[in-house]
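Dear Dr. H.,

I hope your travels went smoothly. While you were away I took the liberty of generating a structure for the chain from your last submission, since the lab meeting agenda had it listed for discussion. I wanted you to have the full record in hand beforehand rather than looking at slides cold. The sequence, exactly as received, is reproduced here:
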Amino acid sequence: MLVTQTLGISALLGAMAGTAHADGNDGHGHIKIAVFGDSYTSGEGASAGTYSTVQVTGADGSVLDVIDPAHRSASAPALRAIDKIKAENPNVTFEVTFVPVSGATRASLYETTRPGTEFEHSPQIDAANGADIVIVGIGGNDARFGDMARTVVTSRESTTEQAFPGFMAPLQDGSYLGQQTATYLDIAQRVAPNATIVTLGYPTVMPNEVPSGSSSPLSEMLISTREAQMVNQFGSTISELNEQATQAAADMTGRYFIYAAEVTQALAGHELFSAQEGLNGIDFLNMQGSYHPNPIGQARLANALTPAVNQAVITALAYQNLVGPPAPTPDPVPAPTEPPAVNTPLPPDPADPGPLDPVDPGPADPGPVDPGPIDPAPGPEDPGPLDPVDPGPADPGPVDPGPIDPAPGSGPGGDGPIDDQGPVHPSAIDLGPIDLDPVLPGPVDSGLVFPGPIDAWESEFPI
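The corresponding predicted structure, in token form, is as follows:
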């Protein structure tokens, strides 16, 4: 099953014939969540003080806290969405594995990152094994988004125009779609039997017209209006193909997939060159963070992602009989097959209807058991897409995650010194007060050390 428009909390709970909140039951839920992917999942572009660090011993014996080049930020959108939902469900144990790597590709999900160094990490894909919820954002680097960005900022408009068809070709000939679908199919083979897989696209980062006198004068000189339009077309095509791949994988496996559609418009009104940008321009202190969401953008992405994650959590609790009626068990996932052919359509398997919708508003069993009165007016079955920038709670119900707090130190006071903060761990951080529109912070003296050039930081913008 695929869900592309995530439902509001009240609609979800009204559709489930039973009580709504896990801590109102005697049971104690346990949900295993895996988050992996590339830089837009890792939190690349956030304040330097939010990145996880590794202790490295120098040649003189001194020990330094060095920022891990994977750039896993404690303010990454998925982590912040999970943290908010955790706070609303104290009787549920959340086991979160957060392993995205900035610059990751589909292939690198299966590889050890920087083997033999202090920054070595196991293959990201291992986190999917037995997970109840997977949140995966991948594909941008396979489409060469970093090369596209480099072409735009280092070339004339005419050169970008000439190169653009080459960047679009893999997106149009079916190769990207087939490979992305194969990745989702493999994830579906690894997760727990009743798991939900949340897939991501990429936000629109440029305005339709580049203004003059913006707050990013250097980017303004380097990027024309036509180039901004090409960047948006390229990014939106990647997101559309990710949604199509999600649909294909759901049809072929019967798994419960959610495509977090709201993420693509999370930066609306806060694109580069806007009055309050949600995106970094060129960052000479961290080239890898150039053209990635800044603290404002990270908060907006978190708000856009939260409904999808919350829906996945409700589904997991339903399968554990902690919310609503007992959920049905889906058919077994078929044995792995060859990846779909590049130009072959991906029809559903007629012999495998897939699992019942765990939040089906109809009665689960017409038998003699009386579930009691049902709220006759839970609201429209599909309230439409949520406002990704709404700072208020979607519903006053007890599991509504509400808005996401901005990154630590990104409030109106800006990012203060964090020298005393110590090593940052992605799973433990005080998100601070709610403020969706903080003042864009200035330079941060984090007291941390960035490693030397890695993966061509000086010339590439990997995502």
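Two observations you may find useful: Confidence is low (pLDDT under 50) at residues 5-26, 326-401, 405-460. The chain has one domain: 1-463.

With kind regards,
E. W.
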